Amino acid sequence: MKHTHRISLTVNGRPVETEVEDRLHLADFLRRELKLTGTHLGCEHGVCGACTVLVDGRAVRSCLMLAVQARGSDVTTVEGLAAEDGTLSPLQEAFREHHALQCGFCTPGMLTSLTAFLRDNPAPTDREVREAISGNICRCTGYQPIVAAALAATGDEAIEGEN
Amino acid sequence: MKSAPFAYHDPTTVHELMGLLADKENAKLLAGGQSLMPMLNMRYAMPDHVIDLNGVASLAGIVETDDAIEIGAMTRQCDLMAAAPANDRFPILAEALTQVGHFQTRNRGTVGGSLCHLDPSAELPCIAAATDARLAIRGPRGEREIAMADWPLAYMTPNLEADEALIGIRLPKRTALAGQAFLEFARRHGDFAIAGVAAMVSLEGETIEGASIAVAGVGSHPIRLREVEAALEGEPANEATFKAAAREARGIEAMSDAYVSGKYRQRLTGVLVERALTKAAARAREAA
Ligand code: FES
Ligand code: FES
Description:
The complex is a heterodimer of chains A (163) and B (288). Chain A has helices at 26-33, 90-97, 107-120, 126-132, 144-153; strands at residues 4-11, 14-21, 52-55, 58-61, 74-76. With 163 residues, chain A is of the alpha+beta class. In chain A, a hairpin with a 2-residue loop joins strand 1 (4-11) and strand 2 (14-21). The N and C termini of chain A lie far apart (56 Å). Chain B folds into 3 domains: 7-52, 2-Layer Sandwich (Uridine Diphospho-n-acetylenolpyruvylglucosamine Reductase, domain 2); 62-174, Uridine Diphospho-n-acetylenolpyruvylglucosamine Reductase, domain 3 (2-Layer Sandwich), CATH 3.30.465; 177-287, CO dehydrogenase flavoprotein, C-terminal domain (Enolase-like, domain 1). Helices cover 34% and strands 25% of the residues of chain B. In chain B, the strands form 4 sheets. Chain B has a 5-stranded antiparallel sheet. In chain B, strands 11-12-13-14 form a 4-stranded antiparallel sheet. The radius of gyration of chain B is 19 Å and the shape is globular. The model of chain B has no long low-confidence stretch (mean pLDDT 96). The interface between A and B is medium-sized, with 31 and 31 residues. Bound molecules: FE2/S2 (inorganic) cluster (FES) (2 copies). One FE2/S2 (inorganic) cluster is lined by residues 41-44, 46-51, 61, 63 of chain A. Residues 41-44, 46-51, 61, 63 of chain A line the site of one FE2/S2 (inorganic) cluster.
């Protein structure tokens, strides 16, 4: 027997009302039902961080939340970070500037995580940025350009290397 | 869609929750989901019913009473980290919580979820052991309270019946010693710790008045080093004393796994005990 719930929520500013199966997790809901495939699934058990989205402003792993639990919430995915007209956010701009992505698989999780992190910590140290993305795995960049982009987005120049 | 099918329930009161627990066979309680959701996704867990605790408002929150800090089971780890009354008394909470997963998982993860999942390397059960926490449990026979020492029954098995739920924990203020420190060793920040140590020390001048030491990640559940604690009492708070404590701590019974031998865990326990005691004593001096 199929167990379902009717849910309504806001995704990237757009109201959504639909029926979801109870067992559907939020990431699959965003990707399959809403076709917002910017949110990536790397592991589906909370390890890689690629699926990170903002739920009521808090960065969370969307593979570890049921779609039905997002009822009444305001969800922001990577597709919702740029302005309506496509203008990139300062963080996205800094990612482009600093080559903070190669294959791009980790990028949605990096951007959503860092968007929330920089909002709450507008002037972080290099070390704090590294800790903030310690739950986001990137297999391409070696992290240096990502850290550099995050620091650049705060207006600070990147500090080279680990310190 | 990876989880096996289940029916989702979202009670809003403890009363409703108890009704569901009494009614539904093969049910699982969903707290922050940072452990249960992976188990569902990988089909390690295949419950017929998932009872979501996130809507039970009375289960979340931190209250300071005359003699304790009471933490609701559904208090999120990020909220506990920022809670002033809890951290004024137990700064070890925030120190340990920064090492619980990552900020994204702490945004959902709860105190009760961590205690019920009871991963051997988890930080919060270790803190609960170090602070002699009391756990409030509700079931069809009413409420019972048990000591943290009686909570783990076996590897990842809490003292909780299928029709019961953890309501909250109480950290007695008298267990908060002046200097506190939590240290762990993991391969990468936020990973499961190979070993972790919570230490609290109170000093009378330069003499150790009392100490509490709990170890995570080494046994099947957090272990209090009561003999080491007793031996510290009345000793001078210096390097020789802490080295002796570390030697004794290495005698702890330790698990081996595919990556790390028991012997290594024992050595690591000694190192972390010495460092944590040194740090806690320094903080006790600062507080004096
Ligand atoms: S897909 Fe969610 S953390 Fe990896
Ligand atoms: S850019 Fe390829 S995984 Fe990060």
